């Protein structure tokens, strides 16, 4: 993959920062990568894993792409410690949850900000990242941000920042919600007599295969249900039970509550 950036600086080498670094090293070999990290444990980890020695502070460069992968609660202290104009010539891509574009523009004194919400499958390059560029970000800069975040999976770009809260629920929280359902599948299988490895394999393959079938064929989920539900058959009994007990509505309400909490946390952070 060819990425048109002179230098990418990843600030913060936690789980998401390391996932992005790994993706960049694997898929964008011609890009210069710098890492900013203060934790001695993480510095050693980055050195062992990638052979890169992180810097303790950000040193601005011409036309940098800066990926902010620090904890949201650390952003205020981080931004206050930066010299004036440090990000004036940089495109800033944030993976911080709950920090608005306006807050970053004000704190960093730049209008070139792209807010993103990736998720944990990014660790194996199967992530889903939703991006929202600030109003002053150009089409070319948006495309560059999409290219960079695509090293950890797929991307979707929206222009309405309010959708980031919904993406936080669906994409950010989605792996946990799916894992919760997977846990029920595994429990069922083990109680039926399968061993733990068999239960995990069957559950993972059912989820993976169903996802690939749905996306690859473009089939509607309801259509996929009907294709498996023989009238009077086994699957129909399970689906009818879920419908009678409102499982669909419970799942949607859980997503709504997650999205609303994201909005609440965003207001607290302003």
TrEMBL record:
Annotated TM spans: none
Domain Pyrroline-5-carboxylate reductase dimerisation: 161-265
Localization in the cell: Cytoplasm
InterPro entries: 6-PGluconate_DH-like_C_sf (IPR008927), NAD(P)-bd_dom_sf (IPR036291), P5C_Rdtase_cat_N (IPR028939), P5CR_dimer (IPR029036), Pyrroline-COOH_reductase (IPR000304)
GO CC terms in record: cytoplasm
GO terms classed as biological process: L-proline biosynthetic process
Cleaved signal peptide residues: none
GO molecular function (one): pyrroline-5-carboxylate reductase activity
Annotated EC: 1.5.1.2
Binding-site list for NADP(+): 11-16, 69-72
Ranges for domain Pyrroline-5-carboxylate reductase catalytic N-terminal: 7-98
Pathway per the UniProt entry: Amino-acid biosynthesis; L-proline biosynthesis; L-proline from L-glutamate 5-semialdehyde: step 1/1
Pfam families referenced in this protein's UniProt entry, alphabetically: F420_oxidored, P5CR_dimer
Catalytic activity reported: L-proline + NADP(+) = (S)-1-pyrroline-5-carboxylate + NADPH + 2 H(+); L-proline + NAD(+) = (S)-1-pyrroline-5-carboxylate + NADH + 2 H(+)
Key words, A-Z: Amino-acid biosynthesis, Cytoplasm, NADP, Oxidoreductase, Proline biosynthesis
Family to which the UniProt record says this protein belongs: Belongs to the pyrroline-5-carboxylate reductase family.
Record PANTHER family: PYRROLINE-5-CARBOXYLATE REDUCTASE, PYRROLINE-5-CARBOXYLATE REDUCTASE 3
NCBIfam families named among the record's database cross-references: proC
Role: Catalyzes the reduction of 1-pyrroline-5-carboxylate (PCA) to L-proline.
Protein name per UniProt: Pyrroline-5-carboxylate reductase
